[in-house]
């Protein structure tokens, strides 16, 4: 029987350019170094699942699966996947598909949510942003995931959302100097909107930031993001225990 305190976790990070996987223990410690393969083109559900299955074969003996996906996930269904082509993924049941090809129970969240679970301190209101192919966000209070918001697709100028304003393509188009000027503006907006206790910045473009950051802003390593798979399952077990307590409350003397 799987509980919060047992089971090895296959943790998968589905990105716009690469798909990574590793096996973790319940404390989020790597039991093997992660492996990665290029995200297929086109990144259709079938092709992405084939890559995940190939990666999973390198990690025998896992008991459950956690995955981060670059889009909006609701009840296991993909609602948006802007960097993989939403039309191909619309309403695709990714949880069910993973369970079918891997034969293990699975949980799926947005990829920034997975990274946020891995790196936050667990104290106060903490915001995670990822600067990769696109712009990702995760909001956590005392280490617990809040409902996911696709801030990336909210307008930041008259003609651009956050993805188009500071995403990887735009960095290459406008260059480092202009991109950093935009990043300063974005951080100022996030301060006002969220009034966070701490902001974490991760992703391939995080290393390009060249201005001084506030003391409550942390650059987080990309490697650690995949560890969020352990925290995701920990929260799932705790939520299930809480639901069980509501249905069958224990008698207190």
From TrEMBL:
Spans through the membrane: none
SUPFAM superfamilies named among the record's database cross-references: Actin-like ATPase domain
Source domain of life: Bacteria
InterPro entries the record matches: ATPase_NBD, ROK
UniProt similarity note: Belongs to the ROK (NagC/XylR) family.
Protein name, per record: ROK family protein
């Amino acid at each position: 029987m799987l509980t919060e305190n047992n089971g090895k976790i296959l943790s998968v990070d589905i990105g716009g350019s690469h798909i990574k996987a590793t096996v973790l223990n319940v404390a989020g410690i790597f039991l093997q170094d992660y492996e990665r393969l290029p995200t297929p083109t086109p990144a259709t559900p079938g092709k992405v699942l084939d890559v995940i299955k190939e990666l999973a074969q390198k990690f025998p003996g896992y008991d459950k699966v956690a995955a981060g996906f670059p889009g909006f996930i609701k009840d296991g269904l993909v609602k948006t996947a802007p960097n993989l082509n939403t039309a191909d993924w619309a309403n695709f049941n990714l949880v069910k598909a993973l369970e079918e090809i891997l034969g293990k129970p699975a949980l799926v969240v947005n990829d920034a949510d997975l990274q946020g679970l891995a790196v936050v301190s667990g104290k106060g209101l903490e915001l995670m942003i990822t600067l990769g192919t696109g712009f990702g966000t995760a909001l956590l209070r005392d280490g617990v995931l809040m409902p996911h918001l696709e801030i990336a697709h909210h307008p930041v100028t008259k003609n651009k959302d956050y993805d188009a304003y500071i995403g990887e393509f735009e960095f290459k188009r406008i260059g480092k100097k202009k991109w950093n000027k935009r990043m300063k503006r974005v951080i100022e907006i996030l301060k006002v909107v969220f009034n966070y206790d701490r902001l974490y910045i991760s992703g391939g473009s995080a290393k390009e930031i060249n201005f001084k950051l506030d003391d409550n802003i942390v650059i987080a390593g990309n490697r650690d993001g995949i560890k969020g798979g352990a925290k995701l399952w920990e929260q799932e077990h705790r939520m299930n225990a809480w639901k069980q307590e509501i249905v069958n409350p224990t008698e207190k003397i």
